[in-house]
């Protein structure tokens, strides 16, 4: 069965304010979808809602992953179903090493009796860290503690490479990265491209899409997707901004939420249809 994340007329609120207002999107294995839009249009709210952050209340609509009701799952069940979120602001956890966290996450995904062996885990982690040009000592550092912004972002991609999700959501993974770190992070993402894995990339900037070429680009405003196209759509946004979209669709200059409402907990343990 081809991997499919199907979002149908999703509505969600935070602290009593409706942010997502009937958003629909379908992401299949082998596809990379980029979601762009002005600040405060609900992009990070979408990521947090899909992953099950308790701060966000679903008001309506449906979300399925491979035909299963995602909204009925707990966060860990969403991870085991193949959903992954690379967070915009990863948390620091003292006392838990990067390697211990990662191995526990993999074993939780694999289930009792099918745990990964220590040697296989070490080889896999060292190989992926080498791809991301990470110092091997980061295996033994506490999770994200004392990491720079770029190191935290690489660590999120490392988790994705280790867990091999079916649907990967990357929430502004490019924010705060210099050009070298951006290239390395994109290299890690591109290494996982394949027919059995879909990506939903939330970003403000064309520069990330210079390294990770999307199949589809979606513009999000007022809590829903208002326009979709190919990579050329992101290039036009870079050159002209969003005013032409607002004028074309008759959208007032309004924001519905704060993109800073990020998923702040480390719970990664495990052709678009616009309706």
Question: Could you characterize what this model shows?
Answer:
By secondary structure, the chain is of the alpha/beta class. It has a six-stranded mixed β-sheet, with helices on both faces. Belongs to the ABC transporter superfamily. Ycf16 family. This is ABC transporter ATP-binding protein.
How would you sum up the major sheet? 6 strands, mixed
- What is the end-to-end distance? 23 Å
Principal-axes shape call: globular
Element order: H for helix, E for strand: EEEHEEHEEHHEHEHEHEEHH
Question: Per DSSP, what share of the residues sits in E-state strands of 2 or more residues?
Answer: 25-35%
Give the rounded overall mean pLDDT: 89
Would you tell me the structural class of the helices and strands? alpha/beta
What is the number of helical segments per DSSP (H or I, 4+ residues)?
Answer: 9
Lateral arrangement of strands in the main beta sheet = 6-9-10-3-11-12
* Range of helix content: 25-40%
The count of strands amounts to 12
Low-confidence stretches: 258-275
Radius of gyration, whole Å: 18 Å
Salient structural properties:
about 280 residues; alpha/beta; 6-stranded mixed sheet; 4-stranded antiparallel sheet; about 25% strand; globular; disordered C terminus
